[in-house]
Amino acid sequence: MPKSLISINDLEPEEMELIFETAASFKEVATREIKKVPTLRGRTIVNLFLEPSTRTRTSFELAGKRLSADVVNISAKSSALAKGESLEDTAKTIEAMNADIVIIRHSAPGSPYLLTKLINCGVINAGDGAHEHPTQALLDLFTVNEVLGKIRGLKVAIVGDISHSRVARSNILAFNKMGAKVVLVGPPTLMPAEIELMDVEVSYDLDSAIKDVDVIYLLRIQLERQNESYFPSLREYSSLFGLNMDKVRLAKKDALIMHPGPMNRGIEITSEVASLPQTVVNEQVANGVAVRMAVLYHLLIGGGGSLEAS
Amino acid sequence: MLHPEIYMRKLCIKGGRVIDPANNIDAALDVLIENGKIIAVEKDVDSKGSKVIDASKMIVTPGLIDMHVHLREPGREDEETVASGTRAAAKGGFTSVACMPNTSPVIDTASVVEMILEKAEEEGLVNVFPVAAITKGLEGKELVEMGDLVKAGAAGFSDDGKPVMNTRVMRRAFEYSKMFDKPLILHEEDTDLSGVGQMNEGYHSTVLGLKGVPAASEEIIIARDLNLAELTGSRAHITHISTKGSVDLIRKAKKRGIRVTCDVTPHHLVLTDEVLLDYDTNCKVNPPLRTKEDIKALRKGLVDGTIDAVGSDHAPHARHEKEREFIYAPFGLIGLETTLPLLLTELVEKKEISLPQLVAKFTIGPAQVLGINKGALSPGMDADVLVFNYEDQVKIDSEKFESKSRNCPFNGWTLRGKVRDVLVGGRVVVKQGEIG
Fold first, then answer.
1. Which of B62, B161, B325, B330 is packed most tightly, with the most Cβ within 10 A?
2. Average of per-residue pLDDT across A80-88
3. Domain A134-284 indexed as CATH 3.10.450.50
4. What is the pLDDT of residues B89-104, one digit of tens each?
5. Can you give the pLDDT at residue A227?
6. Where are the domains of chain B?
């Protein structure tokens, strides 16, 4: 395992499989009355969240705490960074705390790489601008594997704002790595340049694109994109790329429907679709904690220790 | 101040291979200098009574001209000054630099031009040609007082970095500047199209999740300005072109008789956007590093004469500003101390261009664009001379730069070609590779 996880490219397929196996066993911990194992007792995890995030931060925090690590949260509002301190100085401060691993969320693509140069401990990328969000992709693939029993050979449609999505980039890399095929669906204005070179198909037509896919992965549409002329109106976006019951009927009967959250109901997904049994948004959230526990475990302890070791 | 005898002295640079493209010279000749001027470039000149500089096994050329540098003075003296920037220039083999107006205050009044020229006179090691803004405050709205600025010594006009987006204002600039025969040096970019773009738009920007700047952003404004140059009969100099499309546009315009010249940076001739894969902010430049195809076209343009000059776009930035998140780091890299060896290694050694052809792009090429009496070793001209060793290798160590800044992506590269002696107006400013 690498010391840091910044891009899905940092992981070999076997390492991803190992993370999934570990996550499956950690998932059981959440069902216990005492939802805690002593695995990371005495370790310090710093959650450095320089962009607003409740879900991912909470998920990492819970993952760390269930492993008995000490978890410190530094968020944008409370940190000196909001007062103009550089990432370099923040990193030095964190280093002085003897952190074992730093989890960083930052709006600037590539900033986790910068952090690895500034700090000796490992770094986990919890989302850096439009670059990557590797633990999201891991929990997504874990969920697909859990429900459909495999990833290899599946076809996955990722729908929406590909340009601005770190989730899309990490998922493209991860699904490709594990042998699935990816088709991207969205308006041309939200497709980044030469994206087809990432070994994906590109479609501008949701109806035809979802006919033969096993997974429909909807991305959150940022409401302000309308003002930046990426599309004329949310109404038109929703009618072309929103998933409603009529469109679901065009897809395979048991096609999995996923969303990284938070959902814009009525825009990229209707409430009816959100509550279908094949929609696994809640499973994704639940799996997020287990997968992040597995990532923390492997990055901090590696293959050497047993899961229950203290 | 300098002692007068430095100027009075007779100097003879003996036994080198003299390459002076302006005079079609490439031969083993001696260069005789007196009172700071070139007296003769001949075979076996009589060196009696003169101090002899042995240039055997050396290349002797006119001092190089960098027509695009940022000296950062006034305003950002922490990044560069006239003194440090001209030391860096001398160390790199340059005897003349044209400095861009995006200082603070902007070079848009005669007093700022005078101040820079005064600094250059007192503290500068090489000749400095200040380029004034096209519009007041680089705001793209009102023209500067071009007449006053030319009188004060402005060598040209440029809103470098902040291109004039208003086409009507740009037309007036073209027309009005015709009175002075000073070039408009144009950074070509549709800033609306570029938006907050950070690098070349393409596969790599997509993978990195960075906003892209398409080639069209540059080409659209070049096309506009070529039209305006034709409409007004005025002269355009397009600076730091970076795309194949730009080369094609300018080649065609030259064929049609439009008065256009252009330059290219060393980094656009050598690096592609692939070098950004680890978010190296030293490779964050504007215009952005492009693709292999663009490099190929730029090199072809350099050889076939479409591109007239090489300019480094030496853009010093403070360490704390560059060593941070990519999107917050400023654009620009420094080039004065790497340009010559970089292109000797990447272009001449690899036989992409001949040595005399490359020397022309550093000498007579930019001299003609700027309309200055530099860049040649003709009798009567100022004795600005470069003596360098083409065989020696240098390992680039940015910590040893004369420049105050360190934002150089070529740090650690081993390159061929070592500057040995540099003369500015007959005065030896670099001796055996060291500033003397």
1. B62
2. 72
3. no
4. 999 999 999 999 999 9
5. 78
6. 4-60+382-390+415-435, 63-370
Segment B371-382 shows an average pLDDT of 98
Mean pLDDT in residue range A90-99 = 90
CA distance A200 to A180: 10
Smallest CA–CA distance, residue A240 to chain B, in Å, is 24
Range in A219-233, B33-47, B66-80, B378-392 the model is least confident about: A219-233
Residue from the list B205, B209, B212 with its beta carbon closest to the beta carbon of A166: B209
pLDDT in tens, B103-119: 999 999 999 999 999 99
Q: Is B248 exposed, middle or buried (0-12, 13-18, 19+ CB in 10 A)?
A: middle
Taking CA B276 as the corner, what is the angle to CA B270 and CA B281, rounded to the nearest 5 degrees? 100
Distance, C-alpha B400 to centroid of its chain: 21
B105 preceded by cis ω (within 30°)? Answer: yes
Q: Give mean pLDDT, residues B69-83.
A: 98
Q: Indicate the domain borders of chain A.
A: 8-133+285-300, 134-284
Q: What is the pLDDT of residues B296-343, one digit of tens each?
A: 999 999 999 999 999 999 999 999 999 999 999 999 999 999 999 999
Taking the Cβ of residue A169 and every Cβ of chain B, the question of whether any pair is shorter than 8 Å is answered with yes
Mean pLDDT of B165-183: 97
- Is A2 at the interface with chain B, CB within 8 A? no
Strands B156-157 and A44-49: unpaired
Q: Which of B416, B414, B411 is nearest to B392 (CA)?
A: B416
* Residue of B398, B400, B299 lying closest to B353 (CA atoms): B299
Residue of A nearest to B198 (CA): A109
| CATH code of the domain made up of B4-60+382-390+415-435 | 2.30.40.10
Query: Alpha carbon of A238 to those of A188, A202, A212, A249: distances in Å?
Result: 15, 19, 21, 17
Q: Which of A11, A13, A35, A6 is nearest to A286 (CA)?
A: A35
Closest CB from B209, B320, B323 relative to A131: B209
**SS3 label, residue A26:** helix
B209 chain-A contacts, CB cut-off 8 A: 109-110, 128-132, 166, 169
Domains A8-133+285-300 and A134-284 share a fold: yes
pLDDT over 50 at A304, yes or no: no
CATH number assigned to the domain covering A8-133+285-300: 3.40.50.1370
Report the percentage of chain B scoring pLDDT > 70: 98
Most A CBs within 10 A among B193, B326, B327, hence the mutation to make, goes to: B326
Query: pLDDT band for position A79 (50/70/90)?
Result: low
CA distance A198 to chain B (A): 8
Shortest Cα–Cα distance, A207 to chain B (Å):
26
The span from the CA of A37 to the CA of B1, in Å, is: 77
If contacts are CB pairs under 8 Å, which of residues 101-160 in chain A contact chain B?
A: 106, 108-111, 113-114, 128-132
Predicted-complex ipTM score: 0.93
Residues of A in contact with B327 (CB under 8 A): 108-109, 129
Domains B4-60+382-390+415-435 and B63-370 share a fold: no
CATH 3.40.640.10 fits domain B63-370: no
Measured between CA atoms, how close is B216 to chain A, in angstroms? Answer: 13
Confidence at B47, pLDDT banded by 50, 70, 90 = confident
Contact B279 A110 (CB under 8 A): yes
Pairing of strands A256-258, B25-34: unpaired
Residue A222 pLDDT grade (very low, low, confident, very high; cuts 50, 70, 90): confident
Q: Alpha helix locations (H) across B124-276?
A: 146-152, 167-177, 191-194, 203-208, 215-232, 244-255, 266-270
